[in-house]
């Protein structure tokens, strides 16, 4: 049996869980989220705990067992505490600025790039080169951060571009060091 799937999810105070057939809804101080529960997997809510159970030992159902548990646990964590992702902008003249629900980025192009933040994601710009994204939905947050990073991926030669704060850029040697 899945080690992750059989682990119960503790529901903290202030978080409401509602299971309607094949949909689970979680509501808390940071927002509300909904997720479809795949066929063959059921959720049981008991006094402050959620247990994920599967109907058979079929390979597909076993795979979805742990996945469903992880998704529901992320929903509970998201509506209670929220998630955050930090990005850094590296490069001379590269900067970010918040304009309402949009991020205006100067990334070395001939024009400023306007990036519209999706609903549920908030941004905070520190010292023009550090962006902090916050959201209750972990998947939406990760997708938004990846789309932001894709606007100007980090260059392996000079390290310029948008990178995750904890990302290490592997640097390549330029032309001068290779020529003898």
Major sheet details: 4 strands, antiparallel
CATH fold type of the largest domain? Outer Surface Protein A, domain 3
Shape: elongated
Instruction: State the strand order across the main sheet.
Output: 11-12-7-13
Radius of gyration: 21 Å
Which CATH architecture of the largest domain would you pick?
Alpha-Beta Complex
Top CATH class of the largest domain? Alpha Beta
The helix count comes to 3
What structural class do you assign from the helix and strand content? alpha+beta
**How many structural domains?**
2
Topology summary:
Layout lengths: L8 E2 L5 E5 L2 E6 L2 E6 L4 E6 L2 E6 L4 H22 L2 E8 L4 E5 L2 E5 L6 E4 L4 E6 L3 E6 L2 H13 L10 E4 L10 H4 L2
Antiparallel strand pairs: 1-6, 2-3, 3-4, 5-6, 7-12, 7-13, 8-9, 9-10, 11-12
Question: What labels describe this entry?
Answer:
single chain, 180 residues, Outer Surface Protein A, domain 3, 4-stranded antiparallel beta sheet, 3-stranded antiparallel beta sheet, 3 helices
Structure commentary:
The protein is an alpha+beta fold. Helices cover 22% and strands 38% of the residues. The chain has two domains: 9-80, Ribosomal protein L6 (Outer Surface Protein A, domain 3), CATH 3.90.930; 83-164, Ribosomal protein L6 (Outer Surface Protein A, domain 3). The chain contains three helices and 13 strands; from the N terminus they run ββββββαββββββαβα. The N and C termini lie far apart (60 Å). The relative contact order is 0.14. The mean pLDDT is 88.
